[in-house]
Amino acid sequence: MHELEARGLQMKFGGVTAIAGLDLTVEEGEIRGLIGPNGAGKTTFFNACSGRYPVTAGEIRYRGQRISGMKPHQIAAEGLVRTFQHVTLFKQFSVLKNVVAGNYLHARHSYWGSLLRTRKTREAEAGSVARAREILDFVGLGGLVDQQASTLAHGHQKMLGIAIALAAEPKMLLLDEPCAGMNSDESREMIHLVRRIRETGITIMLIEHDMKVVMGLCDRITVLNFGNEIADGTPEAVRANAQVREAYLGSQAHVA
Known about the structure:
Elements: E1 4-13, E2 16-26, E3 31-35, H1 42-49, E4 57-62, E5 65-66, H2 72-78, E6 80-82, H3 95-102, H4 111-116, H5 119-139, H6 154-167, E7 172-176, H7 184-199, E8 203-207, H8 211-217, E9 220-225, E10 228-233, H9 235-239, H10 242-249
Parallel strand pairs: 3-8, 3-9, 6-7, 7-8
Antiparallel strand pairs: 1-2, 1-4, 4-5, 9-10
Helix pairs in contact: 3-5, 3-6, 5-6
């Protein structure tokens, strides 16, 4: 059974075909790259997998279960969680409170328990806070738990976005340009973090425009162009693919 599977996936918006009959599988435990020029269908694919866009035709399955047609919170509750290129934070909250909020899918607070502040509710809330602190230590933000999210540097905001996603207890993460806007040092930290996340047993699929990141991090890479898959294979195979160089980087370009 594949971790994630798309069969005959079509995504159309009016007269525009964003994805044209895509067949794609991701295996458990791998880091899969998804690359292609702007407008290739990468983010549309993530939006379809996470339930943000309805599927025009075909289907998407996660761990054997059909998820196309499910709502975003239902898909996330199954363990398929995504991040966004532009991080959405509760900017007036502390770093810690942002991650606690990310645990809402697994919180077990009844209405009356929250209202009356029962012992069970207090214990559950304490557990959420403890888990949030563990996650922040894991991503390297343990020393910033009380800092207001809006004051974080860009790289730290991206790390916080991943911490929030981890609080939802994913089995697979869809990372949308995790290194976008980062300097070289921040990118190295992000690469290290993604590898450590995979070591915990979480499968990862990522969109990324930095070819050095993609080639150095991913086990396999899928390349889209105009909604069609034009290549799928190891970084070495993709690097050597003339069609990829032509479509994605230009005929004279060298894939790093």
